[in-house]
Design goal:
heterodimer, A: about 140 residues, mainly alpha, globular, B: about 200 residues, Ferritin, about 65% helix, elongated
């Protein structure tokens, strides 16, 4: 099981961030759990698979999850690389894209957070499931 | 303050019941290298980080760990739906069932409940961050072990995602540790110069 090649070949080990980090596309990064194309290559690769969404709602949510994940990964990168202006712009572009998708999703399927404008609707729209741990939500 | 987002960080849709895998995976909820211990570790260590950058990093990674707690709990929940007491007995889960029924409770693979003794807070950033690096590597190893125990792609997909996140967190902690180490060296040099 110990086939992480850093164990056997330290010269492959890329411990430091490359000068100009290159991002993967959103879907690839999401499936990998890593938005940075060349970073962490020496680690054993995982599997490239995503369970199919169980319904239309779950499929629409995937887009938001993809962008949301990219934002999480860029957030952590920016915490330790706060002078990377280009990455900061990418982060903000993603945020704008996510806001739009989120609004469209919420109008159709209900609020994702308690900050949602959809909560103006009567009755209180926060309650209805499926809740995130239920299969129908994924 | 936290704001709940009514979605998982990464989808979990496990279509086949697998009680044995539930018994193993639950260790990443309530075990020593689990996500809940990780979240508690970073969210308590963050108060005494020496720079704002460290406070941000530990808050954000601690927050992401909470999303991982939710993913693992979801996996356990889905893997155990519809299990009969007979099936639970066969899967060695009758002791769990006795205390927790079909609920989700943070224990390790041997049934020992979560304890704060799984992590430490020393108030010393070098000591705390060094523990964090080890914790991420240990969690990565546990995910690799879990991935060898199944060939169900519905289970492998979230495990593979979570494993990769451990690697990323490790690198971010390392970047920050290197930074404060060199700050400390600079400070030491300046101090010696003035003596």
């Amino acid at each position: 099981m110990n086939d992480n090649c850093y164990v056997y070949d330290p010269s492959n080990m890329q411990m430091q961030m490359p000068q100009v980090p290159q991002l993967t596309d959103l879907t690839t990064g999401f499936i990998r759990g890593n938005m940075f194309q060349r970073l962490y290559d020496p680690w054993r690769q995982g599997i490239n698979y995503l369970s199919p969404p169980s319904n239309e709602r779950a499929a629409a949510l995937r887009k938001i999850q993809e962008i949301g994940f990219a934002m999480v990964d860029l957030n952590l990168y920016l915490d330790t690389n706060s002078n990377d202006q280009e990455m900061l712009q990418t982060y903000n572009a993603l945020r704008e894209q996510k806001d739009q998708l989120k609004l469209a999703y919420e109008q159709k399927f209900g609020p994702l957070t308690l900050m949602s404008p959809i909560l103006q609707k009567y009755p209180w729209a926060w309650i209805p499931g499926p809740w995130p741990w239920e299969k129908e939500a994924n | 303050m936290w704001l709940y987002d009514k979605k998982l960080e990464f989808p979990v849709n496990i279509r086949r019941k697998d009680l044995k895998m539930a018994k193993y995976i639950i260790s990443q909820l309530g075990g020593p290298e689990g996500e809940l211990a990780a979240a508690l570790r970073y969210l308590h260590q963050r108060y005494t980080m020496p720079t704002d950058e460290g406070k941000a990093l530990l808050t954000d990674i601690g927050t992401e760990e909470l999303a991982h707690v939710e993913m693992i709990a979801t996996m356990v929940y889905q893997l155990t739906r519809g299990a009969t007491p007979e099936e639970l007995k066969t899967a060695d889960l009758a002791t769990y069932y006795t205390d927790h029924g079909d609920g989700v409770y943070p224990v390790n693979a041997s049934g020992v409940p979560l304890t704060a003794a799984y992590f430490s807070v020393t108030g010393d950033p070098i000591a705390d961050l060094t523990e964090d690096l080890a914790a991420e590597q240990k969690a990565r190893t546990v995910y690799e072990h879990l991935m060898t125990l199944t060939d169900d792609p519905d289970i492998l997909a979230p495990l593979s995602f979570l494993r990769q996140r451990e690697v990323i967190h490790y690198h971010r902690f390392l970047e920050y540790l290197n930074k404060i180490q060199s700050m400390k060296d600079q400070f030491k040099r300046a101090y010696l110069f003035f003596i």
